[in-house]
Write a structure and sequence with these properties.
The complex is a heterodimer.
Chain A lengths: L48 H11 L63 H10 L13 H9 L2 H10 L9 H14 L6 H6 L7 H11 L6 H4 L42 H4 L31 H9 L4 E2 L6 E2 L17 H12 L4 H5 L12 H11 L1
Helix pairs in contact in A: 1-4, 1-5, 2-5, 7-11, 10-11
Chain B lengths: L9 E2 L9 H8 L5 E11 L2 E2 L6 E4 L4 E19 L4 E3 L1 E2 L5 E2 L2 E5 L16 E6 L4 E8 L4 E3 L5 E3 L18 E2 L4 E2 L2 E7 L3 E3 L20 H6 L17 E2 L5 E3 L2 E5 L2 E6 L4 E7 L3 E5 L7 E6 H5 L13 E2 L8 H8 L24 E5 L7
Parallel strand pairs in B: 2-24, 20-25
Antiparallel strand pairs in B: 1-12, 2-3, 2-10, 4-5, 5-6, 5-9, 5-11, 5-16, 7-10, 8-9, 11-23, 12-13, 14-15, 16-20, 17-19, 18-19, 21-22, 24-26
Classes of the chains: A mainly alpha, B mainly beta.
InterPro entries (chain B): MbnP-like, MbnP-like_dom
Pfam family, one (chain B): MbnP
Organism (chain B): Methylocystis borbori
């Protein structure tokens, strides 16, 4: 069976023997490697196995969208580490979002969510945007259809049981507040800590010479990747249950410099769009690099297709856009982070970095039935094979 | 009447109206309260405005327009004694009113209107008996109020999915900014609103080959092009003109707090760089005979409703949106800081609010 090293379903005294059937649905215990401390969870939304399982169903539930055509999983596919492989995502009614779908993986340890919004400090808060947003419409829940959407769940005996179990003692548990809570618990529970690099840290795997050189470059003062991707989550907004103080930096990495004036293209001008402060032009959150090999295309707008190109851009100290309406030399953007400067990387060194980044892929995460679509009867692994043979 | 009342003190970020009315009113007028109804209206110059007929001659270019939406939140309502002392109106608690905040709605889904099924043009509450001469209120939802138990209650930044009415209206939630739209007024001008092309979204077609670095599963398994072929309805009618501009139907004013920042350690919003709440004061106001009118003619006097220079179509409180300066001028708010480090963006400006006036109630409404 699956090895689930990220979790142990807790029935406290006999953890090792308890399977899901024996587990207490109200219980939860994090079972994490020593380098990953338990994450913060809001006091009013504690983790529980029942909430996790309800959240998992709802995450994959298209009936949660206004027109029944989209679920959270439409833009967050497990096999792509919960991204969607698109430049930008598509909502239930066909509208595109301005940004590339961020991964939900290890989001429990992310201080701010989405690409550049310091107001998005909980998954519960962040979820309101895709669920209820009007510009663009993603899930398309609105004042007119929200009752009808709830009735889809109220008329389903399985869901009535699931909600009652996840929110015990509540007289009317089928409500949007609880839908949001359950999905948030599922998302917090989607943990990736079984990559080759994680196993290496625990002394259970060996890196190749190429991967080792890449690791040393990554964490060294030549490539300096670690300044923004140095946490155990390979980002710089890592926080956990016992964090007492947190900074939430955002960075302009010199991707654009429209007409040499420092601007980024609308509607993707980063933190500036929230703060209105010109010095925040083009600043975005440094994403986690866990599973980065399967989460392309890259950057906030999906404008970089491959990891190799990403590394070329950082080696050049930014991107020179040579034609079109976005023309301008991002390398010379006056608002660029002081950390982004040209790096003299050989082709071999670039290959080494890519090799190291690939060690951050967690195959268990991509295939674990614990995170998979509960509405699919066949295991994930078989579906993938089936798809391939279709072609 | 008979709705239960909360005793809430208001804590309005950036405003100096800090009223400890709970204790004051209790001490002086322990029991007898007088019912008071503050009526509101929507007009354009002398015309009444509703969802049916055209509004004549709106904006700098005097264009006819249809009302599309008109809702706003009012908080901190108080009557003013001759001495200048403000006595808060204790609001009846119902689906339109919670704590010291009320939602007014002038769009009832008829005509060209979106909005809500029923109109709501008045605020109901009680005040201690007294001699009142004036009226003050704030357009907007306060960040926090004090509950009866003395604990802070989050209002503007609460989750609308779990918030009590009238903070539960999704159309008035501003999810991305983690708060509420204080004012939502939208009109459809005759001839539409012509604007530069809508912001270019990255094109889907030339993209989505998974990275060569991707695993074979990902490379074979993703196939974004066919992810959901049924999702292809065009989002909304937008006419593309020969010169590359586009014409859309609706001019939108959305006012709310901007530049908000949360604390990841508590999960709460802690500050907003521009509060954008509008304080209003009338020295003379008789609730029995008069009402407060929001005048669309005054609101739109500085903008050409047929033309938009870019950004949001209309003004969505963006400090760099070309349509916001004339609107904020009428709202009596600083769109930006008046000087570097003045820290007064979203605060009342020196010129004052120009969109409200007091007028006699329509004859039919007089008692």
């Amino acid at each position: 069976m699956m090895k689930l090293r990220s979790f142990i379903l807790a029935a406290a005294p006999f953890v090792a023997l308890a399977g899901p059937a024996a587990a207490d649905p109200a219980a939860w215990s994090w079972s994490l490697p020593s380098f990953l401390p338990p994450p913060r969870a809001p006091a009013d939304n504690p983790m529980s196995e029942a909430r996790f399982q309800l959240g998992r169903k709802l995450f994959y539930e298209t009936r949660l969208s206004g027109n029944g055509k989209e679920s959270c999983a439409s833009c967050h596919l497990q096999k792509l580490a919960f991204t969607d492989g698109r430049k930008v995502s598509v909502g239930a009614t066909g509208e595109t979002t301005p940004r590339n779908a961020p991964s939900i993986v290890n989001s429990a340890w992310r201080a701010t969510l989405t690409w550049a919004n310091p107001a998005m400090v909980t998954l519960e808060r962040q979820m309101e945007a895709p669920m209820f947003g009007e510009a663009p419409i993603e899930m398309g829940v609105n004042d007119q259809n929200k009752k009808e959407i709830l009735s889809r769940f109220k008329s389903d005996a399985d869901y009535r049981r699931d909600f009652a179990e996840a929110f015990p003692g509540e007289p009317d548990p089928i409500a949007f507040g609880n839908i949001i809570k359950a999905i948030s618990v599922f998302e917090r529970g989607v943990v990736s800590a079984s990559s080759k690099y994680d196993l290496y840290l625990e002394g259970k795997a060996t890196l190749t010479p190429e991967e080792t050189r890449g690791k040393d470059l990554f964490f060294g003062e030549k490539a300096e990747c670690h300044h923004c991707h140095g946490s155990v989550n390979f980002d710089d907004q890592f926080y956990h249950a016992r964090t007492r103080e947190i900074e939430t930096p955002f960075h302009n990495t010199g991707l654009y410099n429209i007409d040499g004036k420092g601007d980024y293209p609308t509607p993707n001008r980063g933190l500036f769009e929230i703060t209105g402060a010109i010095e925040d032009m083009g600043k975005f959150r440094a994403p986690s690099l866990r599973n980065i090999a399967v989460t392309g295309p890259y950057m906030h707008d999906g404008s970089v297709a491959t990891l190799e190109e990403v590394i070329d851009i950082y080696a050049a100290g930014g991107r020179n856009v040579t034609s079109g309406p976005e023309q301008g030399d991002g390398r010379l953007n006056s608002r660029k982070s002081e950390l982004i400067v040209p790096i003299d990387l050989s082709e071999q060194e670039k290959r080494d970095l890519v090799a190291f980044l690939k060690t951050l892929t967690d195959e268990e995460l991509l295939t674990s039935s614990r995170f998979s679509d509960p509405w699919q009867k066949t295991p994930v692994e078989q579906r993938v094979i089936h798809n391939v043979s279709d072609r | 009447m008979g709705g239960k009342s909360f005793l809430f003190g208001s804590f309005l970020f950036g405003l100096s109206i800090l009223v400890g009315f709970a204790t004051a009113s209790r001490a002086e007028q322990p029991s007898i309260k007088r019912a008071v109804v503050i009526s509101f209206g929507l007009s354009a110059g002398g015309q009444g405005v509703g969802c049916g007929p055209d509004i004549k001659g709106l904006g700098k270019n005097h264009v006819d327009a249809k009302l599309h939406d008109a809702r706003f939140y009012i908080s901190g309502l108080a009557l003013v004694e001759r001495s200048g002392r403000e006595i808060p109106v204790e609001l009846e608690q119902n689906d339109w009113q919670y704590a010291d905040t009320a939602l007014l709605n002038f769009a009832d889904k008829s005509g060209a209107c979106k909005g809500m099924t029923t109109l709501n043009d008045s605020i109901k509450g009680t005040v201690p008996p007294g001699h009142y001469e004036g009226l003050v209120f704030t357009v907007g939802v306060p960040s926090l109020v004090k509950g009866e138990d003395g604990k802070d209650v989050v209002l503007n930044h609460s989750n609308f999915a779990t918030a009590p009415a009238p903070l539960d209206i999704q159309a008035m939630a501003w999810n991305w900014l983690a708060g509420r739209k204080f004012i939502k007024i939208e009109v459809d001008p005759e001839g539409g609103v012509t604007r530069p092309p809508l912001p270019q979204r990255p094109k889907q077609t030339a993209s989505a080959a998974p990275a060569p670095g991707a695993t074979s599963d990902a490379a074979n398994g993703s196939d974004p092009a066919k992810a959901d072929p049924t999702k292809s309805d065009p989002p909304e009618a937008v006419k593309v003109n020969a010169d590359g501009t586009v014409t859309v139907a609706t001019w939108m004013l959305h006012l709310g707090s901007t530049g908000c920042k949360g604390d990841p350690l508590t999960g709460e919003i802690i500050s907003c760089s521009a509060a954008n709440r509008v304080p209003v004061r009338f020295a003379a106001f008789n609730p029995d005979k008069q009402r407060v009118v929001l005048d669309l003619e005054a609101l739109f006097a500085g903008v050409d409703l047929n033309r938009d220079t870019g950004g949001a179509t209309g003004c969505m409180s963006g400090p760099f949106d070309g349509e916001c300066p004339p609107i904020f001028e009428k709202l009596g708010l600083n769109l930006k800081e008046t000087a570097p480090d003045a820290n007064d963006a979203g605060r009342p400006s020196k010129t004052g609010v120009k969109i409200f006036r007091v007028e006699s109630k329509p004859r039919a409404a007089l008692k």
